[in-house]
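It would be a great kindness if you could assist me with a short task in structural biology. A protein sequence and the structure tokens that stand for its backbone fold form the material at issue. I should value your view on which stretches of the chain appear to form regular backbone elements. The record follows directly beneath this note.
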Amino acid sequence: MNRLNLTALLGLSALLTACPQPAPPSALNDAVVTAGPAMTAVYQAPFQGNWLISGLPAWLSASPSSGSGNVKTTFRINRSTGAPHTADQSRLSAPVKLGWQTPGGVSGSATLTVSADLYRLSGQVNVAVTSGQSLPTPARLRINASPSASGVIVKYKTAAALSAALRGGGLFQAQSLNLASQSGRTLTVQVADVAATLAALRADASVEYAVPNAVLRAQNLPPPTLDVQPPYAPADQYAPLQYAYRLMGYSAVWRDMKTTPYLKPVTVAVIDTGVRFDHPDLTGRLWKSGEGALDLVTSDAFGPDTDPTDPGEAGVDGSHGTHVSGIIAAGEGSFASPCAECSTSGVVGAALTAPIKVLSVRAIDRSGNASESDVALAVDYASGKTITVQGVAYTNPHPAQVVNLSLGGPISAAEAQPLCDAVAGATQRGSLVVVAAGNGGGAQPYYPAACAGAVSVASVRPGVGGLPLHAEYSQSYAGVALAAYGGADPSNPTFNMKLTLGGKPVLDSIFSTSWDYQKNQPTYQFESGTSQAAPQVSALLALLLSKGVAATPAAALQRIEDTATDLGTPGRDNDTGFGVINAAAALGAPAVSNTFTLSILGESSTFTPPLDDAGRFNAYLPDGAFQVLAGFDRSGNSLGGEVGEPGAKAAVTLGPDKTAADVGTLNVGP
């Protein structure tokens, strides 16, 4: 807590000059500070004494926040933090306390009411349906189905009556009718109210007949109603905590997996701390010692050998490599309880029942460090190159189509050359190397993620309603290719997914397999980071190969990039690359829902504005680049209009230089 400490400043009055000066205020008064559309607002006031600004909301900062003498501070506006998720508030406003004390010891406080305008985005959603279809939508959204009539056809009894009507007298003038066509004494007119116009025309003695301009249709059979299958929810004990899979469309993918064979075996190498082969949730999902598993660590007493069992990091509980492996391949279903308090079903991995196995290659030692040479050797080995370590030659009997590296560091490109050479070699051998982008929260490239040919994976976390936001800790640089859910920062936790464990709320982290080294038994843990995002991409690459959607790892990567959900600036960007992976779209999974949504996606903020009865919206947003998605959610991830779903999209950038925009009409087809 900030405290106003003035004891050292009581002698300030002795420093005043003897020159005549205007008498300074003996107190500071309440004031209104308005930023309008600007990013900053300056407040200043004459004063003699000490002052302190406190009670700032999360969207506002002050620099400086304290001082002596005249008050002058700059308020900086972070609209992304303050704008409500519903986007229905046009301005941010908050009272801020300005505490003060004069040299004579008189103290008090004033209230500064600071406000800032949000930027307005408007538009309209038009949902068109065809005969025979039923599309569920919110009650306040009008479905613009094909109308039963597009106007009125009227025939007059005589040419004189027709001429009088065309001169604009009588009903035509009163009703503002628009002439569409004429044939003899017959007119077709466009009208706003068909029923009222027909009633008026039929009451006119000069009219022979007046009928609706009925809409006729081609006589093909109407399309079938959408076959929506129930989303698949594994029965494993902790599966409800694994929100990331649902948000990436796995409820649809797993439903597909239960009816569509995923037949091709795929190997994903996990170069990490090793793995706990005795974790029951990984039984049958790991290549073991003698089957290619390898420990390449040369800096501790546990390697090198063919047993990459994770010995545990000194002073840290849990197994990083086991956690990463479980995200990819933890099995579905029950198993014998390994201890009295242990789960008998645990979690699931993205692969669920697909024939995907993890090849563990240990390259991180007990201190949590990995030497560049060990990692480079591990990439060579995992991708099928024969290596020699301390005079012993090793050849991987199961070369990995996908190599996962949830590790890296902010070294220079020159220093990373051995790593980049290894990535290039693996790529030439047909393997894709997927690497965590880094957790430094800055713009410096991390290696080997930034190596040419590596698939650098950034992290997103769930915002309100589960919509994806770029995670604050995730690195942003030109090499980032994709993003996946890596969880919230434990030092700044969020609870948007409303998870509970043991009756207590838990943060929006990634839950997976781990190991309790104190009790020497299997366990499960929440972890966050790009370490958790990278295996999400590795698993999806493997599933595309296993199902046969893609014939090569390179083709699988292209498919993922083409179906990713773009955030913020259109196209590839440094925060999330081509976007957040969408497993349902990539794998062509069946529909498991058909709910309409309107979402506005930015890198650091997301919104779901309300619609009026005509489908119009006015959203009040922070500065930034946004993707507007309107459409039907077929994957069950609460986000409609993604690739493969009926929808419409628009892109817009707002800020002080563009305070308002209108995206027009978003036409959502069936």
